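Chain A, query sequence.
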Amino acid sequence: MDIDIKKNKSYKDLMQLVDKVKVMGVRTNAETPEDAAHGLHFGAEGIGLFRTEHMFYGEGSEEPLFLLRKMIVSKTEQERREALDELYKYVKKDIKDTLLVMKGRPVTIRLLDPPLHEFVPHDKDKLKQLSKELGISMGMLNRRVLALHENNPMLGHRGVRLGISYPEITEMQVRAILKAAAELIKAGKKALPEIMIPVTCTVNELSHQKEIVYKVYKEVCEKMKMKSIPYLYGTMIETPRAAIRAEHMANIADFFSYGTNDLTQMSFGFSRDDIGGFLPKYLDLKILPFDPFQTIDRDGVGELVMDGVQRGRKIKPKLKVGICGEHGGDPDSVKFFHKLGLNYVSCSPFRVPIARLAAAQAQIENPRK
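Chain A, predicted structure.
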């Protein structure tokens, strides 16, 4: 039975008590402005992960997806920039609508993360249609699609690597983020975007992308006739190397957000999509006590998180640190993150109340100031 939480007195009373006790924040993960609104409905204090690429799926995605594909199959930087210029308005609208919904609460926006091949059709008929729409030959399209092929794309050309290979992709997204925030502020609204670089493994990647961000920031400030636009610049910590080099990452980053899904995957060497073939046996035989993708592995992955937090805060004692993997909505994991001193956890909208309750219980069990 569905319960309207706005009208349920018992729920409201419980959550008021919870929020008085907990000290760790709870944000929501979101893919659309509608997701953001759902998260707010359940008491989220911001967005810990806004996935920009999901505007290319589902309802209303036809035109932005076509423009993204046009960019992907471009032969030159000039062609890519032309496609990105057309795509820009869709990206800015999605971000602006989300910032508007959140009314000045922090919104962590992850730059494009998936490998580009995910956005290109592989069905022969759909490729023929794309070839016709783009006005290029099937031979040229097939060569471009073949060039995108990777044996292990989740460890390949994705995340920050796209922004380094094609800086214009980073430029377009950052311009959309900062322009959206600037327009809202000039209209008397509040906006606080946090630009997050995914899949980093070295501080040099962060430095490279930060130069692009700052260049675009100056351009947008000048164009909007504003002295400043509030934003933070940070990174997802989702590779083991980033975790153990966190003190170097903290020299550049304003915040860390632990992507514990990928950090677990890379630490265990397990594919999240393929564990069904062996994990049930591991659990039956007690080789593993639980599914590490559901509850954080405190002894391994948890050590990486703890070590990274300590290293990062040696450089910046007030470094903002959160977690945006599935573990953000798991009560046992939430209690662990509270003990580590994280500023917030982020989870799907419907798990926000669970995370809030777990954060309050964690404070009672292990009080922190």
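The first helix runs from residue 9 to 21. The beta strands are 25-30, 47-51, 106-110, 192-197, 232-237, 255-258, 320-323, 344-347.
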